[in-house]
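Listing S7. Sequence submitted for prediction.
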Amino acid sequence: MSLAVTSSNFSQEVLEFSGYVLVDFWANWCGPCQMLTPVIEEIEKENKVKVVKVDIDKDSQLAQKYNVNSIPTVLIFKNGQLQKNIIGFHSKQEYLSSISST
């Protein structure tokens, strides 16, 4: 199960993490976001990639900081550095390709 993060723990959970982190910006009312959840949970289990979720309705501050204007948006961080921004729902393979190309 993915960890929910907010502005208060984002730095600790994402920016200070050694390795890959997928940050899923989502909302409860977003259909494509609901479709994405099992895809990124599979990636987390199979690839030992940390996945965290930011509910934009509860923490719009982070969404603004990272210019998230559309959801779902997945940001890929490696060792605390933003590597890639993926907007919309994509296949599992597309996320894996994005991770391996960074």
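Caption to Listing S7: primary sequence and predicted structure tokens for the chain studied. The chain has four helices and five strands. Residues 47 and 96 are 9 Å apart (CA to CA).
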